[in-house]
């Protein structure tokens, strides 16, 4: 197949391109080339989707197109410029498109969506809700433009080359060992997808011509299972100290990501719907999540000196554990 990856210079786009090449496809990646490099073997076309006509250098027809855009304007331009030239179309959306962050076990078929972005202010970088609303607009534009498409609402994507450093925090933390501050309750759930499994599924959906809307995430697991998988994959020998959320919020620990955060930790019940999606349909449609120890081991093996890791510093963790034991 002739496959166009709109993006393809970072993380998921690179993984899709790499797997498509390995499967013997002819792969073109189109981006500005400022965020990273395309994988070896792909044809790279320099484009800037900020401007109408910005995809002018992308020539010919494609059996499959995969787009990871966040900005509705980029999708508007793409729909106009690839009209009549795209076979199967995949739009990579996000579970951030959903409106209800609280209710556990929602499915892609019934979960309510955020409203589309305000046409006067379509800025996916303006915050989590704006990002989700922009993805809703992008989905609508792709469906209007191409009809039957695949919308893959990705959840937390992890694995080698993840630029966010969230999952990497936990891989690095387990690899280091010692006493590990584990947030929340061991029976709470966490959910993610290995970038290689998501890329593989996106590619197979394109090959099979599958359309529809799916969540791109594996089944939830408990935090206990999550840490056990990390330990197995990294060979770490650390011991977990579970610290409940009241203590964490009372000590200014930040959820999810960023400075002084415990990555992938989200307060409950307000984020009870976020890492607990029912993905039965996705698994039935071909998503094949690999075991967590494999993801953890590959992530660790891909660490480089310049890797970005978000989360607590070692000193912050030690101090929090000291205060927890002294309470
Ligand atoms: N990471 C997660 O946990 C997560 C969770 C849910 C959903 N998602 C979604 O999953 C996808 C991840 O995609 P990704 O890993 O490939 O990363 P990404 O950061 O979304 O990639 C954006 C791509 O678009 C290109 N691009 C940006 N601005 C451009 C412009 N003006 N013109 C042309 N190309 C442009 C970038 O390359 P250049 O900068 O070189 O142009 C890059 O290749 C996204 O759709 C994201 O919203 C991610």
TrEMBL record:
Cited InterPro entries: Epimerase_deHydtase, NAD(P)-bd_dom_sf, NAD(P)-dependent_oxidoreduct
Protein name: SDR family oxidoreductase
NAD-dependent epimerase/dehydratase domain location: 3-211
Region (Disordered): 106-128
PANTHER family per record: NAD(P)-BINDING DOMAIN-CONTAINING PROTEIN-RELATED, PROTEIN YEEZ
Top-rank lineage group of the source organism: Bacteria
